[in-house]
Amino acid sequence: MRLLVTGGAGFIGANFVHATVRDHPEARVTVLDALTYAGSRESLAPVVDAVHLVHGDIGDAELVGKLVAESDAVVHFAAETHVDNSLTDPEAFLRTNVVGTFTILEAVRRHGIRLHHVSTDEVYGDLPLGEPVRFTEATPYNPSSPYSSTKAASDMLVRSWVRSYGVRATISNCSNNYGPYQHVEKFIPRQITNVLTGRRPKLYGEGANVRDWIHVADHNRAVWRILSDGEPGRTYLIGADGERDNLTVMRTLLRLMGRDPDDFDHVADRAGHDLRYAIDPSALRDELGWAPLHDDFESGLAATIQWYRDNDSWWRPLKDASEATYEERNQ
Which residues participate in catalysis according to the annotation? Predict the structure, then answer.
């Protein structure tokens, strides 16, 4: 298979490329990435000799058309993803997440290429705290932020291109990922690297917001299963039954790093902060036989902490700029 991976130098995309090179040596992988602040060549360093990296924008129709024409399938990770950034600069999210996805869709339509579109559970909005309800494929979209609204728009584009033009596409909506190569602006790596650099960890509000955590390796195994066996036109939800409130995650992380579990600062809550996410992955499990391997969150978190300890040269150049941005926002 000739596989085009958009956003393959970012967090989830780079982990997908690493896993593909390891587990699917028959695949010829091309990565298209704009190499913004959130994507880097260094994230692909372990597989640099096994992939072809193209530095380019998914909004570049000529480039995208050429790369898609040379591919058998496209896995579309490329997106602006940080909610805080979407609140201060929504235009960038519109360009990448909506116009970029449109460009990919037109290319796969023109060349008849299989597409898998990677999305987020945030398109569904949030759920009440303390209730057993979870997101399903039938949950109505109710996005809360510029980020989630642009991802919802991109999902709708994919669905309409499937129905109107017969594009062979699947969609996956996944819960919160953690693991190696995640940018230090995100919750878990921010707190890990705060501790490693002598800063106090920061928690939005009271930390009651609940997220459904999944290790990035399990997410990417699910993406491969959907790409291989998923039914075109279907949406599959990816989750690992990993619900925890942010306060619990913070205290667990600090305990694993040998710190007092209450050694952190509360900061002003994010505007429009979603209360709770929870995924029902029944279709993926029952129909495609997928199940998470990293089902012990604490051991997965410990391994992630160790990765950041061992890869100081990867994240340290990003840290000061990221914290300066948070300081400007009083976060």
Answer: 121-122, 147
Q: Looking at the predicted structure, is the pLDDT value of residue 331 above 80?
A: no
Residue 136 CB: number of other CB atoms within 10 A? 14
For 229, the token pair is 């066996």
| DSSP E strands, 36-78 | 51-55, 73-76
98 touches 148 (CB < 8 A): no
Closest CA to 177 of 142, 215, 143: 215
CA distance 119 to 304: 23
Write out pLDDT tens, residues 89-123: 999 999 999 999 999 999 999 999 999 999 999 99
- Report CA dihedral (145, 147, 150, 156) to the nearest 10 degrees: -80
Residues 319 and 270: their CA atoms lie apart, in Å, by 20
pTM, rounded to two decimals? 0.96
Instruction: Tell me 130's DSSP state.
Output: T
- What is the rounded CA–CA span in Å between residue 50 and residue 235? 31
Pairwise CA distance, residues 168 & 234, whole Å: 10
Looking at residue 120, its pLDDT comes to 97
Which amino acid is located at 253 in the chain?
Answer: L
pLDDT at 208: 96
- 3-class SS of residue 289: coil
Which uninterrupted H or E stretch holds 173? strand 169-174
Burial (CB count within 10 angstroms: exposed 0-12, middle 13-18, buried 19+), residue 75: buried
Contacting residues for 73 by C-beta, under 8 A, at least 6 apart? 1, 2, 3, 4, 113, 114, 115, 116, 227
Q: Is 211 helix (H, G, I), strand (E, B) or coil?
A: strand
Mean pLDDT for 284-308 is: 97
User: For residue 154, what are its two tokens?
Assistant: 């991109």
190-214 confidence digits (pLDDT tens): 999 999 999 999 999 999 999 999 9
